[in-house]
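User: I'll paste a sequence; please echo it back and then give the predicted structure.

Assistant: Echoing your sequence first, then the prediction.
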Amino acid sequence: MNEMGIALELLGVGMVTVFIILSLVVVIGNLIIRFVNKYITEDIKPESKISNHLVAEINSKKLAAIVSAVNLVTKGTGRVTNVEKQ
């Protein structure tokens, strides 16, 4: 029974160690993400103008729906720069 006790103790120590390390990875990752989002700004490219050719091909209501859907899904951070009809 002594060998089984040592094996269970080693198993417990290993599982606790892995849990602590993974928890640290998650916490440090979240802190890095928050820091980057708060203090490092992204250079925003000027919005490209939609060409007249594109407007002629795609209905304005459909284009508005696409822009609205992208805005909703990305919570205002995404922009529609190009729409191609296939």
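The chain has three helices and no strands. The chain has two domains: 1-41, 45-86.
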